[in-house]
Design goal:
single chain; 9 strands; alpha/beta; 18% strand
């Protein structure tokens, strides 16, 4: 997800949103990792819990709770539900947050332990000002990948399947490449192609891109640009572009995307990210990933063309490429009835195969 006011600025900011910074938190090496085995109920004694929603289905009440995790001195919001089964970690896209998975968490929690996290800088996680950091490249995929892996170690205390949308897919791939033992499999939904990555630009366009980025990041133009898109009208218009079924663009969804964007620090994070055009590409990370990868793509995505996305089928780690008909950029929210069963079958298939391997070993 992203914000913009016209289709031109939207294309620019969204592709520019494929900018991957380099991390202040150094990506750690994770040699052999031994996770404690869960005993039915997952407990977090150090956190405050709040029930945010529940689902009563077949006499089973599913609670979704929210909590804060202290990660390297920063407060990170996450939601969780479910006491049994494989662990799933849901990773949102640019400009979104863990609430973007509200149609998936309760359903998947019937047979899984489900966690949905706000990446640092987004949602209701802390938003440190990048200009005040010792390392001026804080908001990067390496930073977020480290966040995911350490969340699995500190909070989930187990391996996990990563379920990712848009730029969250690049975060998931980066995390899996850095620490293979932590990720059991990755399900990518309309992963960002990073079309405005500096490597994908002609030589004559690179100076223009850098100048445009400096204009946004270093002058008042950037703040003005952010103000024009951080409104209900602009957010609704953008959502109506990336959702094929615009009836799914509700007042609730608009508020879910907009509200965290009005918090202190959100503008600086937004501008920092759209002004970075380096970092990893999906096609560079997929060959490094050791776990199985499933890709699903809404075929009406106006931002990430499915014709280009199909090229990812050629990688050995990709077991299948599934077309989601008449669905846009955020299938998990627009078409949860298609996505949730795919997640369940993917996880069941590989959880069973992992268990068999463990038993043999």
């Amino acid at each position: 997800m992203a914000f913009a006011s016209t289709s031109t600025t939207l294309s620019l900011s969204l592709s520019l949103c494929s900018r991957y910074p380099k991390p202040k938190p150094k990506a750690l090496s994770y040699p052999k990792i031994h996770f404690p085995q869960p005993n039915g109920v997952v407990r977090f004694s150090t956190f405050n819990h709040q029930i945010v929603s529940n689902l009563n289905n077949q006499n089973t009440e599913i609670h979704v709770q929210t909590s804060m995790w202290n990660w390297r001195g920063y407060s990170i919001r996450y939601q969780y539900s479910g006491n049994n089964g494989p662990a799933l970690l849901l990773v949102h896209g640019f400009g979104a947050n863990s609430d973007h998975w509200r149609k998936n968490i309760s359903v998947l929690a019937k047979s899984h332990r489900v966690y949905s996290i706000d990446l640092i800088g987004y949602g209701y996680s802390d938003k440190p000002n990048p200009r005040q950091m010792e390392d001026d490249s804080f908001y990067t995929f390496e930073t977020w990948a480290t966040q995911l892996n350490e969340f699995c170690l500190d909070v989930i205390k187990d391996e996990a399947f990563f379920i990712c949308n848009s730029i969250g897919g690049v975060v998931g791939l980066q995390a899996a490449a850095v620490a293979p033992p932590i990720c059991r499999g990755i399900f990518l939904l309309n992963i960002s192609l990073r079309m405005l990555h500096i490597k994908k630009q002609p030589w004559y366009g690179k100076p223009f891109i850098r100048s445009f980025q400096r204009l946004l990041r270093d002058t008042a133009v950037g703040k003005f640009f952010f103000k024009t898109i951080a409104t209900k009208e602009s957010v609704r218009n953008i959502l109506c572009q990336c959702y094929h079924d615009t009836s799914k663009v509700t007042d609730e969804l608009v508020q879910i995307i907009l509200s965290p964007g009005l918090e202190p620090g959100a503008a600086e994070v937004f501008l920092e990210f759209i002004c970075y055009s380096g970092g990893p590409l999906p096609e560079e990370l997929l060959p490094q990933v050791k776990c199985p990868v499933l890709i699903a793509w809404g075929d009406k995505d106006p931002w990430e063309p499915i014709e280009i996305g199909r090229n990812y089928r050629k990688f050995d780690s990709v077991e299948d490429f599934i077309v989601l008909p008449n669905v846009g950029h955020c299938p998990q929210d627009e078409a949860p009835h298609l996505v949730n069963p795919l997640v369940e079958s993917f996880v069941a298939r590989h959880a069973k195969s992992s268990s068999s391997i463990s038993a043999v070993n």
